[in-house]
Amino acid sequence: MELHYDNPAMISGTVDSSGMRMYYTSTAREYDAGILTFGHDITPDQIIPPNAKSFTTTAILTGECTEAILPEDGIRVFGNFLHTHVVGHGLTVQHFRKNPECDVYEELEPIDRNLQYDFNYQQITHLKREVVIKPVSVVYLCAGIIISWTHLYYVQGDVVQLKCFYGTEGVDGVTLGGLSTRNEMCFTFLVYYPAVDFQIAISRIESSALRDYLKSLPSGDQIVNGTEIDYSKLNTVDWDVDKFQETVDESMQGAFCRGEGNAIYRVTKFPEIGCPYIAPDQCTTEATEATEGGVVLRASVALLLLLSLLAATLG
């Protein structure tokens, strides 16, 4: 458990009267639940330009991680906790799976999404249905026709991607990643079972890619000195938000995960989507459900009337 206090106005005399109630049972449940911490590395390299109507930070949980750490049957996610700070206004947890019919990745239904996020109202969301994250997406056998041979072919595990959307209109200066409320974070906490030793998964733009971009700016020589970035000089930049967003999205990413005795680091790019997810038309779906419900109701009423007539006749 973590309890954070933030008192920027230095108000005195405030007393915390919150608390918690814990329960225990002498009968063990069938499964232990776990929480997977996943998001963008907490670093000032997470740069959000000022006066941006919308800017996106993305984190990736790679297929190498899910393949190496998850159990054979995968994990079942049943809840989630989304987290950014005060300039965050939306998050979505995307789910990708290798699919030969899509050439690359198929985008599945989002695991969780909140596009009206409010820092002051954070909560664990219980998902409408459990989501299975798999360690191996596809397993199939290739057989030769002319020459007799077989080959077992498998595709690495599912990929999970977290997108955090920020708005900094009216904000003076850049917002950097960090622990303070006045900095920013991009994290999600997936609640799942059965619990495994999957401790954390984080990613960030490769430092060399970020330095190269900053060096290309008119004041780049003052911002970057060798491998060091002077973050205080970022407020002197005349930010091209679209160009910087493109750089962050298309650059190589350093992705790290740890669990089950494994610590895996990969330099990768965000997945290429061959089959994007298309959300069902909510109005059509609701109308269909209402119509089907109406048919069932009318059938039930007709059956009751028929039974009543039979009872009256027999009586």
Output the number of helix runs: 5
Q: What share of residues are in beta strands?
A: 35-45%
Which structural class should the secondary elements be placed in? alpha+beta
Low-confidence stretches: 146-151
The end-to-end span amounts to 68 Å
Mean pLDDT: 87
In what order do the strands lie side by side in the largest sheet? 8-4-13-1-14-17-18
Number of strands: 19
The proportion of residues forming helix, as a percent range, comes to 10-25%
Radius of gyration: 26 Å
Order of helices and strands: EEEHEEEEEEEEEEEHHEEHEEEH
Please describe the biggest sheet, giving its number of strands, its sense, and whether it closes into a barrel. Answer: 7 strands, mixed
Overall morphology: globular
Summarize this structure briefly:
The protein is α+β, with helices and mostly antiparallel strands. It is built from 5 helices and 19 strands.
What would your notes on this structure say?
The protein is 20% helix and 36% strand. It is of the alpha+beta class and 315 residues long. The chain has a seven-stranded mixed β-sheet with strand order 8-4-13-1-14-17-18. Strands 3, 5, 6, 7, 11 and 19 form a six-stranded mixed β-sheet that branches. Strands 2-12 form a two-stranded antiparallel ribbon. The longest helix has 33 residues, at 282-314. It is globular and about 75 Å long. Residues 31-137, 154-213 form the Copper type II ascorbate-dependent monooxygenase C-terminal domain.
